[in-house]
Amino acid sequence: MFGLMRDWGRRYFADSQAAVLLLFIIGALLAVIFLGEIFAPLLAGLVLAYLLEALIQPLQRYLRFPRWLALSTVYLGFIGALVLIIVWLLPAVSRQLAQLLSDLPAILQAFHQYLYTLPTHYPTIISQQTMDNLISNTNIDPNRIASVGQTLFSVSLASLPAIVTALVYILLVPLLALFFLKDKVQLIAWCQHIFPRDRGLLVCVWRDMRAQLGNYVRGKVLEVFIVGVATYIGFIVFGLQYAILLAVLVGLSVIIPYVGMVVVTVPVVAVGLIQFGASSTFVWMFLVYLVIQFLDGNVLVPILFSEVVNLHPVAIIAAVLFFGGIWGFWGLFFAIPLATLVKSLMTAWADHAKIIQPEKAKR
Predict the structure, then answer these.
(1) What's the CA gap between 200 and 326, in Å, rounded?
(2) Closest among 44, 335, 318, 7 to 173, alpha carbons compared
(3) Which of 98, 213, 266, 323 could, after both became Cys, cross-link 331 (CB 3.0–4.6 A)?
(4) Burial environment of residue 310 by CB neighbours within 10 A (0 to 12, 13 to 18, 19 or more)
């Protein structure tokens, strides 16, 4: 057993380039695990700069903008979008969430009345006793709703440090992104200087991942925006209540493949049934929602993520569970590129070992 492990180590780690790659992976993992919270604004600023760079380059390439003009145009546009989100979107979502909490007793009452009619329409499938048990289990005291609101208010007061931290992030992350964009050439030169010269395998893995990672991050942000706006327009056409809140949830659900769509469909169906009942309006509204989900999965995703390595659905779900459990929201957001990185590392390592072994045998 020891000999087998020794042969395996010599095969994959004896080469200096493989050792450099291994040390880089270990160092990155340790930094994320132990210093992830400290460097979170730095990483967020780096990701934001990466996204904005994808908008700067076309202005330089096709419109012949100088670097400073392209950077200023894109950055001011981003600041304007950020202000719009803070001033309009977040207050609108919070208002609809507060309205949903206040309307929850009436919504449950309407839901119970709808459940009472089901045994009459489907007596062979649903029994009256089953409905009675379901209704009794979903009863909520209106006073409890008020206590939930008070609890949320007290939690918000107790979490003032978290609110201050969020405000600091809102100011710090865009500023860091600006410095990353402005001093891009100097920072890249500094990174190349501190890495060892014998880094061929590391460069190979990075080149393999760069297009995939950039395509995924930019595509995912664009997908969230397109799906959210399209869903909001569809909900507004039918006059669905809490349209902004539900559209934001639907847009954010695309971050988590498969699981997000299933989870967010539940509130959409619940609100639609309570407002419209089992009517033709609800059917058409739900069909529009399904069409948006179908176009997202079969048209938008293939266009936006054409360069991302295909992964099996089981691998995607496993990556979502693993990285989401470790790093929370950012783990969910980067689950697919991280899984792709693992796949690229394994492939590059195996290919490199196949090249190195014959060269050593010749010597």
Answers:
(1) 30
(2) 44
(3) 323
(4) exposed
Query: In whole angstroms, what separates CA 153 from the centre of its chain?
Result: 28
Give the model confidence (pLDDT) of 42-51 as tens digits: 878 887 888 7
Look at residues 315, 45, 43 and name the one whose alpha carbon lies nearest to residue 171. Answer: 45
Q: For the chain, how big is the Rg over CA atoms in Å?
A: 26
Q: Does the model's pTM come out above 0.90?
A: no
Sign of CA dihedral 156, 158, 162, 165: positive
CB atoms within 10 A of CB 305: 18
The answer to whether the beta carbons of residues 6 and 14 sit under 8 Å apart is no
What do you get for the CA distance between the two ends of the chain, in Å?
Answer: 28
Cα(185)–Cα(128) distance, rounded to whole angstroms?
71
280-290 pLDDT per residue, tens: 999 999 999 99
| Contact residues for 318 (Cβ-Cβ < 8 A; gap 6+) | 339
Query: 3-class DSSP state for residue 302?
Result: helix
Residues 6+ apart with CB under 8 A from 298: none
Q: In this structure, which amino acid lies at residue 85?
A: I
Closest listed residue to residue 14, CA positions, set 254, 266, 353: 353
DSSP per residue, 188-244: HHHHHHHS-S--HHHHHHHHHHHHHHHHHHHHHHHHHHHHHHHHHHHHHHHT-TTHH
Helix 160-182 vs helix 184-194: angle between axes, to the nearest 10 degrees?
90
